[in-house]
Model the fold of this input.
Amino acid sequence: MNALEGLSRYTTVVADTGDVSLIARYQPQDATTNPSLILKAVGLDSYKDWLTEAKENSSVSGHVSALEDRVDSLLVRFGQAILKVIPGRVSTEIDARLSFDVEASFARAMAIAERYNNIGIHNDRFLIKIASTWEGIEAARRLEREGIHCNLTLLFSMAQAAVCADAGVRLISPFVGRIYDWYQKNSNQLHHQASADLDPGVASVRRIYRYFRQHGYNTEVMGASFRNTSQILALAGCDLLTISPDLLGALQQMPAADLDLDWRYQQQDDPSEKLSLTAAQFRWAMNEDAMACDKLAEGIRSFAADSRKLDALVN
Done:
């Protein structure tokens, strides 16, 4: 048994890529995409015809503009192909430029869901990815009530996680690697972590996972954005982990080892009270968390830049 097979015994493995051929190679349960991954994939010869198809598509929905519809056509084309090679769900991300607009986020998500439904793909096979801003979470709350399940991404703090859980979001994606990057750059801040000897990204996901279990939330926790295999294996037992093809390959080449699963039940460093935050309290908590504030803004800017590039390709 290799390390990937060992991990799969305790955690749902998810592929973090838009390249359908790589997803088929590693045979994960689920897959996640984002504007950056789709932009990378359409640069490959295998998917250039899909870009042409998207350019030729005219608007079929009253929810969005013709350009937005062509982009959504491309995103759903990837999602459809991915779902043919995995048994589970694919995550499709809306435009990060909508991250502070509840109505626009809701409308764009509904348009993508409509596209999936129109080609016979039911709501249980896809998740709509939305940035974990207050507005994004509010849009997800409404979508969940409509039966459209969501994956709240760019999540870096307990405040974001707690509000997502209260909103009934199906799944959250705390970003391990980007948290690690920030603390590496700002090493003087490491003393703020509950366990200074543990990777701060790993510690954050563990804390969120235990908080959800402590308070009976059904929201799934999917660790994301890994920098190395050690971070992945340290989160064995988490609900899901979304992993890049390079790291999936590395895990396949490693022998299976004993995994620490006891972390899921250790509550001593975790909050004992449930967090119920208003919009003002949420914004203040984010303002006070320099890492979460920095990385959320940076992530939105990065995804927005790649969304603009996708716009240019299909325009």
Summary: Residues 3-314 form a domain with the TIM Barrel fold (CATH 3.20.20.70).
